[in-house]
Structures
1.
Amino acid sequence: MKRISILLLLGFIVSCSPRLSKTQRQIQEQITVSQVFKNNFTGLFVYNPMTKDTLVNINGNRFFTPASNTKIFTLYSSLKLIPERIEALKYTTLEDTIYIKGTADPSLFHPFFKDSTIYHFLKDKEHIKLLKGQLEDDHFGPGWAWEDYDAAFSPERSALPIYGNVLEVRTVDGKASFKPEYFVNSSQMTAFSMPKKRANYSNEFYVPLVKNDTLHIPFIQSDSLTAHLLSLELNKKIGLSEDQSIEFDQLLSGIERDSILKQMMVVSDNFLAEQLLLNASNQHYNRLNSYDIRRYVIDTLLTDLQQKPRWVDGSGLSRYNLFSPISMVQVLEKIQKESPNYLEFFPVGGETGTLEHWLNGTDRPYIYAKTGSLGNNFNLSGYLITNSGTTLIFSFMNNHYTKPTSVVKKEMGEVLRLIRDHY
């Protein structure tokens, strides 16, 4: 009876909306009647940027927990505010000492980038001091899950990250290698897996030797630890300075901004997202304050959003974030207009990153989109290329389900293929 009543209601809606196409009615019915979407909160907004037509709008103006779809806003902010080569360091020379100041560039000795720009710049300098206390944010974002402190996806934020703010441990045949090696003496080897890989309030690590593996374990950050780790690499002492009156009038350029953006988006790297927002703050305000830069982007660059979001971090780790599908599509359209190679930033259906094993095309990819997942939430926002060659922009958001995510994704795939085949 309930299914029949829903169908009757849908029929009434469709009959009162003569402008709905057959495909639109099919999509409306599939989402409204689907047992998969029955008890969760679903939103879908599909837009044709060439004709300015809205093709599908189901709860498009409602607010959802976006998870890593938040990175779409971080991508846009970075493209607008960070130069093509990221600022790696600010510095000045006073008498015989070079003073350096972190800009939140995440690439120094990062496990993926392995950048050594700062190392080569400093290796011939005799006296070096690092300015303390530059990070105005907490090391963790608001609303992050406290129990994730040892999870690879949740490193701490910092002014001058090093090694991606994680300890990399490779275990092979019962032996372990460490990067940085500094943490060897504070690591315990175990013959079994521990509930946690690091102590809660100290840099004591627990490394299981039961299988060959590569672990990335966040370490607790501090200015003194950063200075010490960099000292070990340079084989010279780096001091700390608390003199906030120093004017840092020179900058060191680092690696290409877009290489960091692509890695952030394709593998959904939370650490890179957080650091990029801080680097954008450094660029615009000469301060490391992600709240200020988020507020600037919303109040200055995105004043035309139909629904002003609640945006609290760069990565989407926080459940405090609230975005609508329409706002996601609006920002995606701006990225499309302003970045000629916009598709390169996104995972490709069936080929790369978080979409490698999902949404395969037949003879070519048709989905370029950012996933976003938290417990009981899964979202997908990006670009869909139809069989007719039209590029549509969409945001498909699902919150508060209790079914396996694989079931939700399968049903989402059916809807997206329907759009691909009929528009």
2.
Amino acid sequence: MKNILPIVCAIILMSVISCRSTKKLQTAVNKKDTVITVKNVPSTDSLKGGKDLISNLSKNMIDFKTFSAKIKVQYEDSKGKQPDVNAFVRMHKDSIIWISINATFLSIEAFRILITKNHVTILNKLQKQVEEHPFSFIEEIAKIPLDFKTLQDIIIGNPIYLGDKIVSYKQTENHILLSTIGKYFKNLLTLSSSNNVVERSKLDDLDVTLNRTGDLTYGDYENKPGFFFSTYREITVAEKTKVDIILNFKQYDFNSDLSYPFAIPKNYKTK
């Protein structure tokens, strides 16, 4: 069970696994970019540009009733590359997150997870065990402040932890860099200047004693009616050891009728 938790965490928390990064944030703007404008707080123009961008990001959040996806998860830590898994995710907005994890090397379902606003239930089908936890269990894994809505946004790919205090705003030929401060994190966002999609999000903890960071790259966007969806996400994090995670969305669908089967067999033991 311990080996699967980081993978589960990667799937459901995506970009915000708590860690001390071993890699510095790479230069977000290509050196060949021609700088068009550079705006620094507290100038009025900079504040307006940053606030307008945040407003546009908020308006362009992906809205949905239901969502389903098949995600290939690649995971590597200090022990080397771990076996790939396929995660099948189903969500009903503001209600249920359902996850089935299949071990590809065994070709069987290994875990099934049901998350609601208040509760987390984990079926360990390999060991025939069931675990019951409050929602705060996910916060304990990630070691960050988290609620159900934020968890939904992470899975969908919506920007998270957009602070209301603008630190800096910079626009180049190909990118927009926006740095904000919120309640918990400083967030450095790198966006495409052509369509305002997020290419990278770098979170740094405001509490220097914790020094939590999260670093996520978004790629392979597909243009859907009304929104863009990132089908490739890469995470590089470390605490005591380095962790690399790659998430490939092989299939996904919005607003179809879904079921969320979750029966607990009578012979399963409670852990």
3.
Amino acid sequence: MSDLKHTKPPKIKANRRQRQKRDGIAWRKLFHVALRYTVLVSIGGMLLVGGIVAVEMVATAQCFRVQDVLVSNNQRVDEETIIACSGMTEEQNIFAIDLAAVGAKIEEHPWIAVAQVTRHFPHEVKINVKERQPLAIINLGYLYYVDAGGEVFKVLDQDDVLDYPVITGIDRDFLLNNPHEAEQMIASAIRLVRALVQRDVFTLDDVSEFRVSGERGVELYTLVGGVPIKMGHDGYDEKLDRLERVFDRLRTRLTGLRSIDLNVADRVIVKVAKSSGQVNS
């Protein structure tokens, strides 16, 4: 009997009570975590819905309709034409306007290089444009303007000015079938045009035509006498320096010259109509 009195309860019972206690605590923590998560999700959902409703209200509010469109930095293209190109109307809400898309529409106009569109609270839209500046005309079957970047951007119409140097040697089919080579050839001619703008002795006014070739580079044709001046592919500033040192002596003889070649280093090779000769720079 004494053995029975001092016998300890089986350990398994205590282990069961402790495990049950731990299990109860785990379920309680899980419940609180789930409750907090549910509350946060609910609050987030309400905020999201509220935000969507608020944005929708702003985007449809009558007080934010477009009332004023201001155009700046335009000279060639009038304000009405630019606004028409934008596609915007007075019924639109300024917050519903896709500014990038509006700018892209305006840039489809041949004279507009860049259009920056911004909205201003509560009902004003501003359009700032950068117009293209023609630097030359290229003959591709039709006459087109070329800008300082060498981009062919507009076919000439009857109201356009023709007083620009003319680039020849490329036709429309060549441009379409060999765009990269054609771009390089046009870029060479434009570099030479820009170099001549800075000159005082032999200037852009002395040139009637820039003929480009993938093999020969650029040849200038003088306004007086139509004398070809072989300029090649590069080194135009140094070649023009050599030409200017002798050009005053050649100016009165242009009608009797056959060609001027600047592609030989340190030389200006001048060919006359009936014989050959050279003038050293």
